[in-house]
Amino acid sequence: MTTRRALIGFPVAIAVLAALSLYRVTLGIPLAYLVLLTSILFWVTQATSWNILSGYSGYFSFGQAAYVGIGAYSTAVLFGRHGVNFYVTVVVAAALSAVLALAIGALAFRLRSLRGEIFALLTLAVPFILAALARINTTIDGGQGIIVSVPDFPAGIGLFQDFLYLISLLVAGAAVAVAFVMRRTRIGWALSAVHDAEDVAEGLGVATFRYKLRALVASAVIGGVGGAVFALQIGFVAVDSVFHLTVPLFVIVISVLGGRAHWMGPVAGAVLVVLLQDRLTASGLGEWQLIVLGALLIVLVIIAPQGIWPELSARPLIAVGTAAVVTAAVRLALSVDLLDALLAGLLTASVVAMVLNRRAGPAPRVRPAETEHAVAPTVPSPVDGAGRVLVECANVAKHFGGVRALDDVSLTIHEGEIVGLVGPNGSGKSTLVSILAGSRRPTAGRLIVEGRDVTGWPPHRVAHAGIARTYQIPRPFTSMTVRDNVAMAVMFGRTPRGLVAARAAADRPLETVGLAHLADAYPAVLNLHQRQLLEIARALAADPKVLLLDEALAGLNPVEIDNAVAVIRRVHESGVAIVIVEHLLRVVTQLATRLVVLDRGARLADGDPKTVLADPAVVRAYLGKRAHA
Ligand SMILES: Nc1ncnc2c1ncn2[C@@H]1O[C@H](COP(=O)(O)OP(=O)(O)OP(=O)(O)O)[C@@H](O)[C@H]1O
């Protein structure tokens, strides 16, 4: 959905939904429909809350019930038991949820070991602990449950059900608006990058900790506020009704079904899932709910892994038309309940959109890079430490348990240099690159960039200090176009820029590497060489002083290697010092102004390439076999 369409459609939808309650009697809308809509809005709120962190960033949480529980108990204890103003309890619910999120985030997001499934397990444990606390502690619940009466509400609103509906609409609308804004601003881009390749994002200057924490807090506040309203909805808050495992299961099913990369995904998912659940219950098949939902999820994950919303929004007119026609036809032909007809209409529209999208086929493959051209290699003259010192790696050691990957290695990189870093397999080259990029903390020694000691700095700050790297196996942000991959580095670079300016600034690095004509393609259509060029363009966009190329030529054919060499030379000519890790000596000697040889974690030689290659120790340790070959 374009931003313009969303900015018009969203307020209109909210106004129409509000009118359903305000003019309910005039429009003849049954109260039962309002109850159903209130339930849908609750799940829209909770699924959007989950999606803001887990859907956008890929940090799967099973702890949604913690926020629902905190919110519901804030209202139940303060309003239900002590008569505190209901709106004050909503604020308390938001504050307590935010505090919990800050505690979880401060722990989980600091430690790399708590990523992936460990994060999911951690979040799973939280509601269990809170549920036990609520059950044991008599000032909270004590196992009895708490009755929540009806709060005062403005007289003009009508029934309590209308008030509940309107307040649920307000909360769900605010949640979706937050998700929309986040998706379109820096935080959304940062979370997408975290989802696709967190280490890479961090290395490009994205302060991942900060963005993840903000997303977690926003998610918690929305979940907590939704939980506070839920207390009114259920009227009796008990541990099992709020800290229940079905809460995370439902929000995950809803978000994945609807489309977790999109702000509207949870809305589409909630409408479909809650309607389906309601219709199954109404037809006496309530116990089949989870089976039907599970089966639907399995089928959809296989045929439409991006969820229903991207399918529908790719063909909005056909989707709306099909849903309307099928709903009307089923209702008239079979005289079934309007909701049954609506469900049939929505499911048919989803299937039709999917079939049409599949028949249209995948996006056409983009032509191979034409601007790539081989440039006759020339041997540069060694500059031998000509420029000022940019980076100094002093007496660095890195131990992995008993493995001494690096031991007392010192290295200086000067302005204008291309340093070739060579050595046998396992000699510590990649480890040294990771230390130079700040993605590994040395066991001993210091990393100094332009006179500043940056040892132990997080990678995004080292990136801002002027160091960029590429990866041996290219790691593009797969959900973004080639241009946006590069724009990310500008957006979060040393002088951060907005999306529009960053996209414009991405042109230059793309031209330098010869990928400009593929700017609108997705990385999936690039071949290995083009992906490696994209790595270089992205690193270049971060405006580095020193570029670290970790085996950027691995797996390329001779023509591609010559082209890559020409690209690297162009980058160098633009004023960037380069450290290149490479097994192909032919290439390193073409490019390097200085050669550093590592052997078993120690620096064996450092000097101009000719002298180093003639060093008997180097020949013995590393080059022997190849030289003879
Ligand atoms: N995360 C890790 N845990 C344990 N040992 C590691 C880890 N990373 C690297 N090592 C070890 O450190 C040593 C140096 O590895 P490194 O990958 O830096 O070498 P390399 O010169 O880049 O090798 P290659 O040319 O094969 O890429 C090896 O013995 C390796 O097994």
UniProtKB/TrEMBL annotation:
Keyword Magnesium carried by entry: no
Pfam families found in the cross-reference section: ABC_tran, BCA_ABC_TP_C, BPD_transp_2
Organism (species): Virgisporangium aurantiacum
InterPro entries: AAA+_ATPase, ABC_AA/LPS_Transport, ABC_transp_permease, ABC_transporter-like_ATP-bd, BCA_ABC_TP_C, LivM-like, P-loop_NTPase
PROSITE patterns xref list: ABC_TRANSPORTER_2
Keywords of the record: ATP-binding, Cell membrane, Membrane, Nucleotide-binding, Transmembrane, Transmembrane helix, Transport
Domain of life: Bacteria
Full protein name: ABC transporter domain-containing protein
Recorded GO CC terms: plasma membrane
Transmembrane segment boundaries: 7-25, 31-53, 60-80, 86-109, 118-136, 163-182, 215-237, 249-276, 288-308
Membrane topology: Multi-pass membrane protein
CDD domains noted in UniProt: ABC_Mj1267_LivG_branched (cd03219), TM_PBP1_LivM_like (cd06581)
Location in or out of the cell: Cell membrane
Gene Ontology molecular function: ATP binding; ATP hydrolysis activity; branched-chain amino acid transmembrane transporter activity
All copies of domain ABC transporter, residue ranges: 391-625
